Amino acid sequence: MTPIQILYLQLPLLDNDTHNTRENFPFAGAYLDHALQHSPEAAFHASSFSPVEWDELDTQHLAEKILSSGTDILACTLYLWNIERTLRLAALLKEKKSSLKIMVGGPEVAKEHPLLFEEPPVFDAIITGEGESTFPALLSAWRTGTPIYFDNLALFKSNGWEWGTLPPPPVELAAAQPSEETIMRCVQNRPVVYLETVRGCPLTCSYCRYYQLHSGLRALTQKQVLARIRRFRDLGATEIRFVDPTFNARSDFTELLTELAQLNRNHRIAFFAEIRPDTLTETQARLMREAHFTAVEVGVQSIDPKVLKNVSRPIRLNKTAEGISALCKAGVHVVLDIMYGLPGQTLTEVQQSLDWGLAFGSDVQVQCMQTLILPGTVLRNDCAKWDFIHEKRPPYGIKQTAHLSPDDIQKIEILLDEHPHLPADPITPRFCGQRLRGLFHEQHRIHVDQLNQTLPGRGNRRAILIHGSNLFNHCGAIETFIDQAITTEPDGLWQFILVPEHEEPLDLIEQLAKCIQRHPSHLLDRFASAEAFNLIVSRRLYVRTNASISEEWKNAAEEQLRQSFG
Known about the structure:
The protein is of the alpha/beta class.
């Protein structure tokens, strides 16, 4: 009997950073595959993970790889940064192979999702919350034709999408853990190993869905945690990120840190975790440093108790400050999160929260994030209550509240952009010059007379250098080429670099910028850091000059490009 072929796929976050390794660890796929291998369905199915090199492919070429792989079932993990592209990929695959079954799950999935349940459907099954027990049962149902009725599973039927009514079998955390060898195979050349030691969160923040999907706290025992870390170390792991929403929620936290410090006394492994600072002691902070936690993230979000009460997030501000100070004193780098756009939050309060965080000094990195109105959250259901206006598509950013106007939001983004100690998104250092930094590694040089040929390349981040004389006279052909590129790969990132032989009319830049602006916005352009300034960061126009072009012309072109692109 030929086994049914399953492929686990998680599309990466695309950004303009060309210096760091892309992080796209298929964590959910590893858990699903572990559940499959420990079920009777393992005898009927063969599974694989998408190779790491596929992370660089554009959607068209990725679809070709999937279709030629013999995949029968595609299991996709959805996040806000990849859902639109996954939808387009699924539609393309279904068009070419209607028998392919596609199931999705992940943090983005919610019963009230604005995009997932469109018809005609491109997915066959949608799982919300924990999928470890549902996934093998779904495979069995598909293989045998028997019905399945789990309430975290939606199946498309003749009368539309239908959710089950019965709870799936409970998931035992220790039994659900993929082997360390499986995790390391998934890591490949990705930089970080993820490790879950606690499932569930003691907090009930209304802007987050995590606590709704996991009742109570389930934790690996101290012995189990240490055994996994020891094995990861022996397999060559050098960085472990605990994915627990609150790493110090466990009752034996001090004892675990003591053992971690002993196990990692040579600091071969760097640890990272998210913690609650208001419950942290000086002893625990010191032990974190001894265990080699190189950084921790703490979510403060706001220093106004009324604002935090509005989102069901308790705070003890003095204890929070003490915990952060203890980490700084111990030598642990702290990443401190502040949010803007929360219910009842004013411009003045955001500034006060930022000032409070910055007062800790250089040991604390403050990052301020726009509130995202995520599908399935309590906060999304309360939008009318707080007069919220938000982006309907990912990333669902807040655009206006009863207490923050669009002008206030722009002021916050200007502050973040200009403040020397608040990290901003990478900006393009130069759009016009003989040397251009930050260009994508995949580059294609095309003469302006050859733009009607097949679109070159295979990657999801491409730089196209268009050269020749009298580029302005070929403006229509360049526009057609840009339209084709963006329409063919709307989720990809594009850099269009003009390489003129002499000074061209600046109207060329204006017309091509308008051409790019006519296309529907990319996910990256909807984040507040770009949207507040009406800048396009996903598809950019550059000019590479030569020595014959004057500084005056270059400066004018640079200014014109900066008005449209970020």
